[in-house]
Specification:
This protein is mainly alpha-helical. Helix content is 52%, strand content 11%. The chain has a two-stranded antiparallel sheet with strand order 1-2. Helix 1 packs across helix 3, helix 2 crosses helix 3 and helix 3 packs parallel to helix 7.
Length: 144
């Protein structure tokens, strides 16, 4: 388990919004997303199982929780470059945080950086599915 870049999920969302504000247009923002996705830690092929797959995504996405309610860690991967970048943002906000903080923090950064308007409906649905799955794991850890 690692220590998040920012002390809280809200701080991480604010930092992401600031970073995306630097880019003048969506071509640059997509490139940044792709670069973020390339920096994800390697995800072993043997973990790319149906059980770890997030359904509702057009591309393949796998998500594996670990840890407990006091600190949950998530590993995730996708076969799509842009979706991998989205995963990197989601993990920055939610991984290595308490289950309570994960459950309590809405993914406001999606609106803040304009992602909601610039993702295709299938990518938006996939992002929503991944967030729902991640929050469900956190709720489970809390015993809800």
């Amino acid at each position: 388990m690692s220590t998040p870049l920012e002390p809280t999920a809200l701080d991480a969302q604010a930092a992401i919004a600031e970073e995306f504000a630097f880019f003048g247009d969506w071509t640059e923002r997509y490139q940044y997303l792709i670069d973020l996705g390339r920096q994800l830690p390697p995800f072993p092929d043997d973990r790319k199982t149906e059980e770890n797959r997030v359904h509702g995504c057009q591309s393949m996405v796998w998500l594996i929780p670990s840890g407990d309610a006091s600190k949950m860690h998530f590993d995730a991967a996708s076969d799509s470059a842009i979706v991998s970048g989205l995963i990197a943002l989601v993990l920055r906000v939610y991984s290595d945080r308490s289950a309570q903080e994960i459950v309590d923090t809405p993914p406001d950064f999606i609106q803040q950086i304009g992602l909601a308007k610039h993702l295709s409906p299938t990518r938006s649905n996939g992002l929503a599915a991944m967030l729902a799955r991640l929050k469900a794991y956190a709720a489970e850890a809390l015993g809800h």
